[in-house]
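Fold this complex.
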Amino acid sequence: MEAQAATTQKMRKKGSLESMASGLTVGMAMEKSTNDAEPSKKKKKRKDKNKQDGELSFTTDRDSDRGARHIVWDNAGNEAVQDNSPESSRSAIPSAFGQARDDDGVEEKRQKRLEKKRRKEQKRQEREMAAQADSASVYEPLTAAQASGDADSQRSGATTQGAQAVEQGPSSIPGPSQTSRESPKKKKKKPKINHAEDGSLYRSNGLGQAHLSSQQDPAIEDDELAEDELSHPQSETVRSFSHAPERSTTRQAEPLSTSPSKPKEKRKSKKGSQVEVGSDHASQEGASSAAVTAVNAGASPQKLSVSSHQGIDKGKKRAAEPEDVDGIDSWQNAENSSRKRGRKKRAADEGHGEAAPAQIVLGQTTSNTDPTLEEHEINETEEEPISSKGRSRKSVVPSLAALTQIAQSNPSGSSVGRKTTRRGPRNETNALHSKEATIADAYGLRHEDILVEKLYQPHQLRWLAEGIGLEYKLGAFSKTEDEHIENALLEFGEEHGLNRDQTIDLMFNAEATKSELFGSLFRAATRSVPGRSNRHVRKHLQTIYHPLAHAGPWTQEQTEALQQAVASHGQDWVAVAKVVGRRRDDCRVRWRDQLTLKTTRPDSAVVKNKGTWTEAEMEKLRNVIEEVCRELSIDIEKRESIPWTTVSARLGGERNANQIYQKWCVMLDKGLWNESDDFMLLQRMSEQTEAVENDDITMIVLRDLQTDQWRFSPKTMRRNWQKLVKKFLDVDNYKTNFAANLAKLNGLRHLSAEERNKRALRSSPGRGVGSGRGKSRKGTTKGLDKKGVDTIDSDEEV
DNA sequence: GTCCGGCCTTACTAACCAGA
DNA sequence: TCTGGTTAGTAAGGCCGGAC
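Structure:
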């Protein structure tokens, strides 16, 4: 690496593209042993492209979780392949698996038997652990030593995936030997360390959290727990206690809380008279600790009604909940319909059942008695939600019955999706809790069918990637993909006699989830974006097509409404969202990131949560991050692996996780941007053949452009791309005509600095594509940048 | 066991701001 | 005017539990 750095350094000094490219070729070649490879298909595509172009002097493979294989190109287009990765063996996996399957299913049967045996043994262990847990603490404080891999001390009873990950220690977490470049596509499962808001680490003992949490909270008396359990046998009460962070916070905060000895009253007081520490909202990022701080500072508890145990009374509250009169949150209602059904059932069981309101079907009011539809549909008639992507929501939403009727009445509606085995009888292959069973379940299906027809969880997809080489995409959906989906939705609607709005309504129709039409819709959408899984597509669509999405900045009225709603409803975000008229997540994030800090942390000389970072703060941040990463055996430069909430907590909540993440991104930038970085940016972008071919810059994950030696934050890269297209192409919208713009800018690279500057359409003194070292904004043209990298003048080039 | 949505955390981007 | 820094808004990743 040092040699590589030296090479890069040398290249920078020389400044020419040729030397840069060749230097990088060498540099990248040196990375072979450490870098992972992207899927071979993509690589081949790019290789072919490069050959055609005859321009790119090198290519290198980016990270992948599937091995390291690197191809280096010299300027003449000769290929030097170095394959020191397990990729070849990976590619052999399917055939090997197939061979096993070919043995007349004997192996399969044997696997099933083993699987059955494993399950039995697992259940037995769980029963034993449950028995032990009756008298044991649930969340044991996890010491740094334990967290960092004291496997022996953790093996006892830790059976959750998270605990297992911890047990694996450094081996399960990318170590320093790996590159810091890792695309979102190959995120590895993070060790499930429970990060308390005070920064302490906890792990679960692996039992059902719900059960355990209500049993084990030291702050809760046994009798009241029993009472709660009896009152709300399946309520979200349990869930509200099920998160380690809150529990740990509760524990840690006891000395600070106002009346730790009266947990029962605390839990029942929702409105302000009690500051609740240990919210059921793990994302409060210091909200709880902030609350404690505020209490200590004498802040008005009236403003701190962050009821940590809202869930405790949710069952009762729901039962007594008034009808949704404002009607704004009908879509949240739809989203929560599943839970609501349960609540309504419980409420009905408790004698608090809500009267089933009338149902509106395609504009007609009927005497519907389906309680699962009423809120959603009635509300739709009362208020028109904010449209999504310019879509104008109709004031009346057809019911599932109506949608189905439309589809069935359509001549082509006979093809309303295939028959599925959903809700069907259980069978052996449905036991998908193990990797083997998942692979067995998917075996025989085409990979594209696996992604479309199955609804595997993320970890199952990872298993399939490892087991049968399933390739799938993660990360942000590109503009192109969204367009494909949009077209697929239109086609689907056309096929089933639904207009666009009706098709989109189907996604959010609570009752529709039980219909074949619902599944068909998402299958159609998933098929339109190869490589995406059905599950990802569902989530994506239900995000971007949500009528309350893209609601824009918060107005003062909304903010006040949020504050009032939180004061009265606590962190029951569904209820809060109803009042405020924003999406549930909008409310939660708004509260978490801004209002909590601002309301509970008034400006003071001690607590600072906005503004420029001081040197002392940054130093403290570095130390805390190093500390956390050391404890968790995390490569410090792997941003995605750092638990920012923990870092935030250990910083005393002075900055929230988002602030810290953003700052860390910038702190990791390797030096100031100069014009050789323009070259590198163009080079790296040119390698994104899929994006180039599709003329879609949104296909590029900017972080993927980073290398060990060339790393800038996505923002820095984006802004410099914007700058280039603006200066040389006079293009304001950097997202348009990506391929053409890139080609034009590449064409400028071979010009001298002088020539390039002549072609600049918008002035930018001292700058030009590839004109070498630019003038530092700090006013120096030569010196050391942030990372101690020697910089030189641009004039030396050409 | 499967499907689905809830919830929390992380990541990214646009807009804004202040200083050179 | 340009630049880096910061904030605010939004999308995505992934785990979990309820309903069926």
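The radius of gyration of chain A is 29 Å.
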